[in-house]
Amino acid sequence: MFGVRLVDCHDKYLGLPTFAGKYKRDLFGFIKSRVWNKLKGWNSSIFSQAGRDTLIKAVPQAIPSYDMSCFKMHKKLIKDIHRLISYFWWGSNAYHKKIHWAKWDNLCQPKDKGGLGFQNLEGFNKALLVKQGWRLIRSPDSLVRKVLKAFYFPNCSFLEAKLGGKPSYEYLMG
Predict the structure, then answer these.
(1) Between 121-138 and 75-90, two packed helices, what is the crossing angle to 10 degrees?
(2) Is the pLDDT of residue 10 over 70?
């Protein structure tokens, strides 16, 4: 009637998957490909170290932020993203690999401790998820809290909730 087509199943809503099935690592592969597409579009040899530092902090480390605020990312996915960023940082490409003079964990240390201040995405992911938990605790009247409480922890508080028999992936990971 209005030219709107009916869709049986939505794959994504607001850029996030609506259903997380058996292969969760593959589900978020689009994040890795988005990071890779950004990095391969830049020729690292034309940037100074300061330019690469700024680009890494502004773009590839920011790409997965929204997704990580809702889901716990698979460790392999985070490791792959770190590896892609590390390749860019050290100037490697598909044809020429360069020596990585420091471990990624060392580069993620704060500058005053000898690192470069890059984000460790695993820790950042946990921090974003804890922030969501904090919102559930601090906003008892929010709609999302009411829905989650009714479905997952009707007889206790968020902090006292136990893992159910068959929780959804979304509840487990985010």
Answers:
(1) 130
(2) no
